[in-house]
Amino acid sequence: MNMRVETQDMPGLDQAVIHNASRIPNLHNLPSISLDAVRTAVRAAQNYLLDRQAPEGHWVAELEGDTILESEYILLLQFLGHNDPEKFKKLANYIRSKQNPEGSWSIYPGGPSEVSASVKAYFACKLAGHRETEPFMRRARKAILQMGGVTRCNTFTKLYLSIFGQYDWHGVPTIPPEMILLPRWFYFNIYAMSSWSRAILVPLAMINSVRPHRAIPDHAHIDELFVDERDRHTRHLNWDSNLVTWRNVFLVMDRVLKVYHDSPFKPFRKLALQRSLEWLLVREEKSGGLGAIFPAMTHAVMAYKCMGLANDHHAITKELKELAAFEIEDDRTIRLQPCVSPVWDTALSVNALVDSGCPAETDQLQRAGEWLLSKQTTRKGDWSVMAPNLEPGGWYFEMENEFYPDVDDSIMVLMALYKAYCPNDEHWTDAPANVKASMKRGLDWVFGMQCRDGGWGSFDKDNNRVLFQYVPYADHNAMLDPSSADITARTLEMCSYFSIGRSDPRVRRAIRYLYKNQEADGSWFGRWGVNYIYGTWQVLRGLARIGENMHTERIQRAVQWLHSVQNEDGGWGETCQSYEPDSPKASGPSTPSQTAWALMGLFNAGDLTSGSVKRGVDYLLNNQTEAGTWHEEWFTGTGFPRVFYLRYHFYRHYFPLWALAQYHEFTTGERAQNPLAPDAETSRFANLEV
């Protein structure tokens, strides 16, 4: 069954009315899904989540990356001379636990062999005391050589190896620290690259300039990972076979920069290094480390040492303390998180709990709202370079990261605050004065970050200078932060709660952006979640919430696409491989999070009764554990497409909860379950204030 919602463009349109109309079902053809079973599953999932709230009011689960984190941590500790045999052993144990049977390492479960991750893992294991003659090391060496050896690694890996004398600095792309001196109108100034690249490359440029050397034990050398004898040839960057390409242009520039580096006359080098150091130190303030992300923090420590800062300098001790907080240790292993995600986890948890029937007035949700309010930024960060007249008001991802709020977290928090402080679809201006002021600042900031193309990126505005992708050190595939369909659509969803309708010119531009970026098969690319299932769900949700006609041919193409990629077990799945060129979309084992995304996309497009919906809901109901949650081992979060992926350990939980809640509300017009209701078996909540 498809539902048609007719709306008019008019100022101040109450989108709650639209949403209520859109969930009126045709009761004659509902699938045979037990609403009692849905309510039972929702209650169990609510209890699981409520039991895991921190006393301060937030939620945060483990954020898992690949073994590059543990490998680079060993390299950092070796760089600092902190050779702790027990810690190195535990880190190496974790690295070994992720080795593929043939000897390589991948950057996501089930993924192909990845040469940079494998070389770093091998080198880290050697520094931890393992010898090349051990069986797992022999397998690793064979796999690495089959992939082309060390020379096939990316820039960051080669730079690390050069620090320890395992690679030739001349084979590493030059990252000139002088770039920090370039004026902001210059095409290649640092604020024209993505925020995460900026935070990573500024300290790397300092390291590249000083070119430090750290000795390692003789047994830790990795000459055996070169396909030919490493001392025969000086390593150089490879040219494109076509003579006139942007890559070759930049390689010529790299040659010039290397001549400049080797010259005794570098008039701007001292000033550039001083400015870079000042830039890093300023961004230490009100942050959980530089950018609050592992790579930037690791590089910052190395850069500080290259600049002569003492081990007890507050910047170094702070970074090391924050890095140590990423450690998760058990009896045999230590693993690292790339960062932490409390704002994101909390905002999503609040949205899922309120939409599933947990009263907004409960003490737990009010504490969550207060905690989110405390995380709103109050000072200008890097984003203000492209939006100098915009006042701060966004939210960040981590515990503290004042310089780097992002649009995605901000809009998710704004929806959570609306639901926590405006129950029963009250107008947001009726919220308490402090909450209303906070939401107003947040809305202004989000709209001030809209890009010229009508969409929204994550951390910066109009961050889309395409030539950056051709610079030699851009092989981490993350130099830009352009508009994305998923964030743009979620912004429309957010607008619907704040009575910002389709007549608003900002909304009209965003809708045009979304339709322009729809794929031929009806799907949308997902930048921050894996992948087309994520993007398609969010666009369908955003367009439905803002009042678009969900009966149009292009919307129904998206619905049919979701039907066509459902797995036989009733779920949906998509691996990170879908980001690779010419790889199939939405192909992979079913996961709870991706199944929830697909279902929410279908619900919001008007599909509540198809066989696909029945099988999908059954998949979630049948795979819920006795504890009230779901199992999920696959990575469904995206850091940098084709380079770094994530497993959010709560994605398996709050997204299925949210999907079941939406199903119940769309089919009945009522929220699914109040865990505080008298008949609920929730004595643990007896002391909550309602």
Descriptors:
23 helices; three-stranded antiparallel β-sheet; 5 strands; disordered N terminus; Glycosyltransferase; two-stranded antiparallel sheet
Low-confidence stretches: 1-28, 679-690
Q: State the share of residues found in helices, binned by percent.
A: 40-55%
What is the CATH architecture annotation of the largest domain?
Alpha/alpha barrel
Name the helix and strand elements from N-terminus to C-terminus, one letter apiece: HHEHHHHHHHHHHEEHHHHHHHHHHEEH
How many structurally independent domains? 2
Enumerate the strands of the largest sheet in spatial order, edge to edge or round the barrel.
Answer: 1-5-4
Task: Walk me through what this model shows.
The protein has 690 residues and is mainly alpha-helical. It has two domains: 15-63 and 340-685, Glycosyltransferase; 66-336, Glycosyltransferase (Alpha/alpha barrel). The protein contains 23 helices and five strands. The protein has helices at residues 15-22, 35-50, 68-80, 85-97, 115-127, 135-146, 155-163, 195-210, 246-262, 269-282, 294-306, 314-325, 342-355, 363-373, 407-421, 433-448, 485-497, 505-516, 532-546, 553-564, 592-604, 611-623, 651-668, and strands at 63-64, 327-329, 334-336, 637-640, 644-648. Helix 3 (68-80) crosses helix 5, helix 3 (68-80) packs parallel to helix 11 and helix 15 (407-421) runs antiparallel to helix 16 (433-448). The longest helix has 18 residues, at 651-668. The protein is globular, with a radius of gyration of 26 Å. The two termini are 38 Å apart. Residues 1-28 and 679-690 have low confidence and may be disordered.
